[in-house]
């Protein structure tokens, strides 16, 4: 977490994002229970002191891992801001419409209210919010873009190469193909690892 606290440039695979989300959610729930136990939970606002402090601390890494997850499927991090922006504007319009109806038509029946343009507009905003939420979930659940994209190497490839420790101590001469029990495919694999670790330039 500390290594990628403010990493908005690389890529994160699905497991990294969803395990982080699971851990963060469980931590917030546990801290909320602690707030209730020690008397730091505000029942009017339905929030606790410790839980709020934790949410503030993980706000940046949560946004960062979301951006990296979008990078992993080839999308810019600005895409999630567009989603949030659209939802925010829809919420403002929805609450404004509800407030307008409540203030100007306090005694209107539910049937008449449902036919008002403002009320219909609020319903459309709810549909937009749901649609944008579904779109964001689809993006976050999409598998990694194969190979290298403009945000870096596929993190699945990184994890596989990291497991290739048998090549960690090789030099360039050892990576060169030889006729003694060394296939061309094995030599290419070794050279790829060396290039990935920055010990071999283009």
Brief digest:
The chain has 202 residues and is mainly α. Helices cover 64% and strands 2% of the residues. It is built from 9 helices and 2 strands; from the N terminus they run αββαααααααα.
Write the layout of secondary structure elements.
Elements lengths: L13 H25 L2 E2 L4 E2 H9 L1 H14 L5 H27 L5 H5 L2 H25 L13 H8 L9 H4 L8 H13 L6
Antiparallel strand pairs: 1-2
Helix pairs in contact: 1-2, 1-3, 4-6
Describe this structure in words.
It is a single chain. With 202 residues, the chain is mostly helical. The chain is built from nine helices and two strands, in the order αββαααααααα. The chain has helices at residues 14-38, 49-57, 59-72, 78-104, 110-114, 117-141, 155-162, 172-175, 184-196, and strands spanning 41-42, 47-48. A hairpin with a 4-residue loop joins strand 1 and strand 2 (47-48). Helix 4 packs antiparallel against helix 6 (117-141).
Essential attributes:
9 helices; 202 residues; two-stranded antiparallel ribbon
Largest sheet: 2 strands, antiparallel
Please provide the ordered H/E string of secondary-structure elements. Answer: HEEHHHHHHHH
**Helix count?**
9
- List low-pLDDT spans: 161-175
Number of strands: 2
* Quaternary structure classification: single chain
What strand order characterises the main sheet?
1-2
Report how far the terminal alpha carbons are from each other: 32 Å
What is the radius of gyration computed over CA atoms, rounded to a whole number of angstroms? 26 Å
Instruction: Give the CA-based shape.
Output: flat
Task: Give the strand content.
Answer: under 5%
Proportion of helical residues: 55-70%
Average pLDDT for all residues: 81
Q: What structural class is derived from the secondary structure elements?
A: mainly alpha
């Amino acid at each position: 977490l500390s290594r990628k606290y403010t990493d908005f440039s690389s890529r994160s695979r699905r497991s990294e994002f969803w395990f982080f989300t699971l851990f963060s959610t469980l931590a917030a729930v546990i801290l909320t229970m602690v707030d209730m136990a020690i008397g730091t939970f505000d029942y009017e606002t339905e929030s606790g002191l410790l839980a709020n402090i934790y949410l503030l601390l993980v706000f940046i890494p949560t946004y960062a891992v979301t951006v990296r997850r979008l990078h992993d499927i080839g999308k810019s991090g600005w895409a999630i801001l567009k989603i949030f922006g659209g939802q925010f504007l829809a919420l403002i319009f929805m609450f404004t419409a509800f407030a307008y109806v409540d203030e100007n038509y306090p005694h209107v029946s539910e049937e008449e209210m449902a036919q008002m343009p403002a009320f219909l507009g609020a319903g459309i905003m709810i549909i937009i919010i749901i649609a944008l939420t579904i779109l964001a979930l689809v993006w976050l659940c999409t598998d990694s873009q194969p190979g290298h994209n403009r945000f870096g190497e596929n993190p699945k490839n990184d994890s596989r190469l990291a497991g290739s420790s048998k090549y960690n101590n090789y030099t360039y001469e050892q990576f060169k193909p030889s006729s003694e029990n060394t296939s061309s495919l094995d030599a290419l694999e070794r050279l790829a690892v060396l290039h990935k670790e920055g010990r071999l330039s283009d």
